[in-house]
Amino acid sequence: MDDKGSEKKELVDGMPRDSRGFWQPEKGTAPPNPLFSWPPKPGAALKWFFGIPGYLFPWQVIYMAIAILTWLYLQPALSRCVEFRIDWIMEMFVRNVAMLTIITSLWHLRFWSLKSQGLKYKYTTEWMAKGKRKFLKSSQLFDNVFWTLVSGGIIWTAYEVIFMWAYANQIIPYLDPKEHPIYFVVMLCSIQLWRLFHFYWAHRLLHWPPLYRAAHYLHHKNINIGPWSGMAMHPIEHILYFSGVLIHWIIPSHPIHVLMNTQHAAFTPAQGHLGFETFEIKGTKNVPGGSFFHQLHHRYFECNYGEQDLPFDHWFGTSHDGSPEAHQRMREKRKKSHNI
Ligand SMILES: [Zn+2]
Ligand SMILES: [Zn+2]
């Protein structure tokens, strides 16, 4: 018996759903990155990199622009960062919390507050949970916002502060973009891939039972996820999650690379946890929304630790592609582990 046969499909807002309200996109999860295909598929790889939507456009380019603008207009001068002083540190903290609030709220407002597209392309039929004691103040939204801004905001800023202090005191290798423009651009474009590499291994480590019980359980309280769930993490997880930036301590980099790395870590989870497959914009071909691949991780826990742009799950056999067969496999695996 497969999923289709065993569960009745209901139409809710035009979406066929199983009896528990789960909808899944027809095409399943995003395919693994063609860059790593064997035999090579150069045409598909180029399309993946330069296509719209693709690796660079639109989202990477937007995050790069935010990092550059932050450096140019919102970063305290390095001459002020020679000593740890509360004034420039607070400026960076307030800047970070404000930017994170604006970006995450934009996603939340349209899809979850105004419900502009109702349940259309939504993975579940539930909204943010209220009255559940596992969340702070029994509110999933309050809980998610608290961990994102307080724990996330402090630890993210702390990493940036240490880097700016280190650049100001010339104790880490500095890259001058005027002398090495190509290196600068290649490095800027590579940050997302490096982050996916780091995220996968950090995430595998977080599923090691002692670390899961100490920290990662907090992120997994969210089975039904929304934009604010993305950065809702325990402080131990935030320390590990943002530690990908430490690569710039060793490899010559510009502070823009540091900002791109930390901001990418801070801003992208809102979209990854959007909870909607598609961003419905009238008059356009619909724009891709959240990550169905990661949504399945929140539903089943033991699959899809990374993302398809760096397909470790595909290589290591932990990939759930959203197919009825994969759903069935996960259920059987769960039943078995519960019977032990
Ligand atoms: Zn998540
Ligand atoms: Zn996890």
Describe this structure in words.
With 340 residues, the protein is mainly alpha-helical. The chain has one domain (59-304). Helices cover 53% and strands 3% of the residues. Strands 1-2 form a two-stranded antiparallel ribbon. It has a two-stranded antiparallel sheet with strand order 3-4. Strand 1 (10-12) and strand 2 (15-17) form a beta hairpin. Helix 4 runs antiparallel to helix 5. The longest helix has 29 residues, at 140-168. Mean pLDDT is 93; it is low at 1-6. Bound molecules: zinc ion (ZN) (2 copies).
Which descriptors apply to this entry?
binds zinc ion; 53% helix; 340 residues; mainly alpha; globular
Global outline: globular
Q: Spell out the helices and strands N to C.
A: HEEHHHHHHHHHEEHHH
Report strand order across the widest sheet.
Answer: 1-2
Strand content: under 5%
How many strand segments? 4
Rg from alpha-carbon coordinates: 21 Å
Cα distance spanning the termini: 23 Å
Brief rundown of the structure:
The chain is mainly alpha-helical and 340 residues long.
Q: Helices and strands in order, then pairings?
A:
Blueprint: H1 3-6, E1 10-12, E2 15-17, H2 42-50, H3 59-74, H4 86-113, H5 140-168, H6 181-206, H7 209-216, H8 235-242, H9 247-250, H10 255-272, E3 278-279, E4 287-288, H11 292-300, H12 312-316, H13 324-339
Bound molecules: zinc ion (ZN) (2 copies).
